[in-house]
Amino acid sequence: MKENTLSNIDDRQRGMTLIELLAALLIAGMLTGWGVGQWRHHQQTLRLEHTAQQLLAFLLRLQADANWRNRTTLLWFKNGTPWCLGGGVPPPDCASAEGSVFSPSYRDVVLSGYTDKEIGFYGLRNTAQAGHILLSNESGGLRLVLSARGRLRLCSEGLRIRGIAPC
């Protein structure tokens, strides 16, 4: 009975052939390329969601301040790169804005739309002028909806984004 050891294997059978090596490298390259693309999409989705959550928190603070002081706070929007929005008197541009101003942390998230009429918060009964703000990047879009009763919520345009339901 022969033992099957390394010394008994024919010399021609050691290692991988060139074709096997190329096939393994091709598969590894394809998986890496797919993984990099998916990682980029995942990062864009995270940046979009993070910016939308930050904007939601900013607007909730403006709403609470308007309610606390029993005053009206109307929102203003400045498009461009970078875009910004805030409450109170609108500045000529984002660089000269003072007071309550929101500017995104990520440059790939753009302010792609908002309600053309005045949007704002009324201190009386914590109500608001209804409207929406649309943020987007290459991974999709998120809509921040402000109802007349002062409710703020996020919904996604089209497909579900990171657990945020479609509008």
TrEMBL record:
Membrane-spanning intervals of the chain: 21-39
Listed Pfam families: N_methyl (PF07963)
Main location: membrane
Compartments where located: Membrane
Keywords: Membrane, Transmembrane, Transmembrane helix
InterPro entries: N_methyl_site (IPR012902), Pilin-like (IPR045584)
Membrane topology: Single-pass membrane protein
GO cellular component: membrane
NCBIfam families in alphabetical order: IV_pilin_GFxxxE, PRK10506.1
Full protein name: Prepilin peptidase-dependent protein
